[in-house]
Amino acid sequence: MVLLSSDRMDSLFSPRCVWVNGPIIIGAGPSGLAVGASLREQGVPYVMLEREDCIASLWQKRTYNRLKLHLPKQFCQLPRMPFPADYPEYPTRRQFIDYLEDYAAAFHVKPEFGSTVQSARYDETSGLWRVHSSSAKSGEMEYIGRWLVVATGENAENVVPDIPGLDGFAGEVAHVSEYKSGDRYKGKRVLVVGCGNSGMEVSLDLCDHGALPSMVVRDAVHVLPREVMGKSTFELATLLMAWLPLWFVDKVMVFLSWLILGNLAGFGIRRPAIGPLTLKNKYGKTPVLDTGALAKIRSGDITVVPGVSRFTKSRAELSDGTALDLDAVVMATGYRSNVPQWLQGTDFFGKDGYPTTGFPNGWKGKSGLYSVGFTRRGLSGASADAVRIAKDLGQVWREETKPTTKRAAGACHRRCISVIF
């Protein structure tokens, strides 16, 4: 660590600053929790900043009631703590939230809630990260430390496409993050824009609550059965990839899908030319795991329609020239990373908010910068990166900070609100 002169300290530390003897973690979702727990086992202190008032805000505030984990629980557990034995193979939304809260309590993860990061930048002269945040409780704050862990993840911000006429549509328009259940849509004609896992499940939920859903399928998409002969499709693919090349496993997955689900082209669902696993690895496009929506599509309870050209006051005009009369629209158009909005002065993250270095090496950048939750491999990928980060930081922290922290902290003692050890 670079030791600073008294003059440099005076200019570096503002009246409302916090010196962090360890990493500054941005985000308290599953990825942030996994890093925090793994760092505690390494004996490394940290501060965790979270803009919301709870952990895992995506799961607590922006998910629908019927949601379950799409993969078996053994592929979704965080480091050092399996799911309770009495949990089902696919835990519910509420069960997963309970698991995360128990996890945070077990590893004493205590984020600074309500702290919205405005900017984070590496100071080349001092060799320190400067993170500016704001909160209703403490106002403007600056956190200063040697390391920064970006754990805001892939789903920080809603994505809403700019479709002509949407602003003038008179019915209700909601992003899937605002959707809880189909109760309020009973008897209504609802257009679900998007055919990923969320779009399929919301369409199914609308059916179950007596609504009349249509689902936009604009592009080709892989739909796979969630299970094959009682075994998770994901687990089967993982086992096959340990022995067979990816292209061959792709062929097996497509064949099994055709065998179990049949040819979906007649229902308006086309398969991409690229296999499902290759598509996921190269472009981050997750295949849809069917949980019952296809049966509703076959029965006609869910109508598949092409892309939307424009909205009018009460209708959606489609790319094939037809139109739908509508009462409501649910935008199941996904989420994106928000890292480019606040992380400055580094090319480690691209414009899309993902590390420019792909898996499995995207967890570590330069100058003490780390990232977790950007592997496009779900919770298992985030957990693996969290363990890597903690081991790496544990070694570096022990080597770099113990002899110098007391001197640096002492030099800024009168300038900082607090020193976090």
Overview of the structural elements:
With 421 residues, this protein is an alpha/beta fold. The protein folds into two domains: 14-156 and 337-396, FAD/NAD(P)-binding domain; 158-335, FAD/NAD(P)-binding domain (3-Layer(bba) Sandwich), CATH 3.50.50. Helix content is 29%, strand content 23%. Strands 1, 2, 3, 4, 5, 6, 21, 22 and 23 form a nine-stranded mixed sheet that branches. It has a five-stranded parallel sheet with strand order 8-19-9-10-15, covered by helices on one side. A three-stranded antiparallel sheet has the order 16-17-18, with no helix packed on it. GO terms for molecular function: flavin adenine dinucleotide binding; indole-3-pyruvate monooxygenase activity; N,N-dimethylaniline monooxygenase activity; NADP binding. This is Flavin-containing monooxygenase. InterPro entries: Auxin_biosynth/cation_transpt, FAD/NAD-bd_sf, Flavin_mOase-like. Belongs to the FMO family.
